[in-house]
Amino acid sequence: MDKEVPELLLHGNLKKISEMNIAEKFNNLKIDINLDNLTKVAKNAATIGSEIINSNYNKIQKISSKGREGDLVTNVDLEVERKIKDYLIDQTPKITILAEESGQSNKSSDLIWCIDPLDGTTNYSHGYPFFGTSVGLVYKGIPILGAVSIPYLNELYWGCITKGSYCNNEKIKVSNSNNLSESLLVTGFAYDRFETENNNYAEFCWLTHKTRGVRRGGAAAVDLAFVAAGKVDGFWERGLQIWDIAAGAIIVYEAGGIISNYPNGELDLNSGKILACNPKINIELKEQLSQVTPFKTNFYT
Question: Are 254 and 155 contained in the same domain?
Fold first, then answer.
């Protein structure tokens, strides 16, 4: 934090995603921070992760299970998280840190760094090149800036409230698909999919027949970055953690997308659910999701 920076008054035309009520939550809100400086910090932190991940690709020394089936952690996750935390503590000592592997730091502030050091650990551990590092900054539950690095593609996505979204310093925007039948979607399945019928299997099948296709990448932060860049038209998922989506949500928003809960409601980072898409398919996508009934477990076991 730069103590010499004057209070920053955030306002602007933020009504493009009224469901999140960003306009109401940020209009006339004063925050004593330097957004440009903090955006650089987020980008640098994500780049630290990218460099470590690339240097260790196909060289993992240790893989462990965190308890639930499919929920893995490697020595690389831990190294990335440690290095990013050290950097953030040095650059922004007053900001709370919430990281996937180590939890929340003791300090308490309205600003929280949310870190996923290696989103797509299972992919990474198998040598499947779909993974990244996500670093988002949240203010009182609202994502305000973030960066997502995708090492294998040498891409760095970043966005900041009122300042737009970028990939490798080129401005990006969501797709222009007019309806679901012309759209390519992406989703995922939470670790609790073995324990609940509300596991997204039915939604995946339903929307596969309503669109040009549904992909399952295995890294929510990367999925959101691709929505922001218009590579896919929409993304939905449940069972996520705040560090999975804090950075990606603001990147999609600043790229002109809509971010929300589903089938209805504004985005709540702690709900574990997110829908992110271009504005033209938002209503139709929500309507389709609202029609789906989960499969009974005996249907596929």
Answer: no
Question: Which residue range is the domain that position 284 belongs to?
Answer: 180-299
Strand partners, 166: 158, 171
pLDDT in tens, 98-142: 998 888 886 778 899 999 999 999 999 999 999 999 999 999 889
Q: Is 99 left (phi over 0), alpha (psi -120 to 50) or beta?
A: beta
Q: Looking at the structure, tell me whether residues 110 and 143 fall in a common domain.
A: yes
- What is the model's pTM? 0.89
Strands (DSSP E) along 126-216, which ranges? Answer: 132-139, 142-150, 155-160, 164-167, 170-171, 184-187, 213-216
How deeply is 106 buried, as exposed, middle or buried, from its count of CB atoms within 10 A (0-12, 13-18, 19+)? exposed
**Judgement on whether residues 152 and 13 belong to the same structural domain of the protein:** yes
Q: How far apart are CA 249 and CA 47, in angstroms?
A: 19
% of the chain residues with pLDDT over 90: 72
What are φ and ψ of residue 258, in 5° steps? -105, 130
List the CATH number of the domain containing 27: 3.30.540.10
Same domain for 127 and 12: yes
Give the separation between CA 301 and CA 298, rounded to whole angstroms.
Answer: 5
User: Do 109 and 212 sit in the same domain of this protein?
Assistant: no
One-letter amino acid at 291 equals Q
Cα separations (Å) of 218 from 1, 74, 132, 240, 268? 34, 16, 10, 12, 21
